[in-house]
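User: Some background: our group keeps a shared notebook of sequences we're curious about, and every so often someone picks one and asks for a predicted structure to add to the entry. Today it's my turn. The entry only has the sequence so far, pasted here. Could you supply the structure so I can complete it?
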Amino acid sequence: MADTTDEPAAKGPLIYRQSIWTRGTHWIWAICLFFLLLSGLQIFNAHPTLYIGQQSGFAFDNAILDIGAVNTPEGPRGRTTVFGREFDTTGVLGMSGTAERPAFVGFPGSVTIPSFRDLATGRVVHFFFAWVFVATMFVWFLASFINGHIKRDILVRPRDLAAVPRDVADHATLKFKHGRTYGPLQRISYFGVFFILFPLIVLTGLTMSPTMDAGWPWLLDIFGGRQTARTIHFGVMVLLVTFFIVHIIMVVAAGPINELRSMITGWYRASPGTPGSEGDKP
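Assistant: Of course. Here's the predicted structure to add to the notebook entry:
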């Protein structure tokens, strides 16, 4: 039977893999994204429809997502329309709660902050953690540029792209390599998150602000209008949630004790055969 422990019998060196800056920003981001997601869904519930284009309303047919409720011969039902195709989402989207006390909201209160309809509080929570998120992102980029983390672990090189098929096969068979730096799939994933998704969700968030539009009108041109920016913002959120789920699955599969120790203390148990270096521990 295969060994399922976090650390194999033949241990590799214990290396210092994550700096205090990487660890600190990692946990701050985790907290921020939790509150941003749940407060963002509260804001979304104020108008649970997404559009493509500069304008929206009854006179326009540019909605690509609509979550609501409709009356049927059997009573009210939750309905979600995606690109014109309708789905019954009663109990999850559009209509949730109990039969005696139904809640006609886009997302149920169990996944929003606050759990009841309160757009003002949702906006306060969302904007507070949004600015904490942005400040943390600035600190991460500055520290990671200075200490070489971006160049060493994040930037994708041609040899990383060439090694993707082998890395995919290793992940599919749970053959994880614990090295001094990230593997090809990790590099591509983190590069996409830090250099594409994070900047994109911040810029689209700013585009939805009338004040920012007045100061930076070019944001509206880049994203094709405030409504399109809102749709992209929502889409990036979905991608970040997907990344988080896959990230947790990979942490568990690769050895949660070793992975958590790395993000708490900085020390990481490398695979046997990893060349030693000054500062390593046995």
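Suggested note for the entry: The CA atoms of residues 121 and 186 lie 37 Å apart. DSSP finds ten helices and eight strands in the chain.
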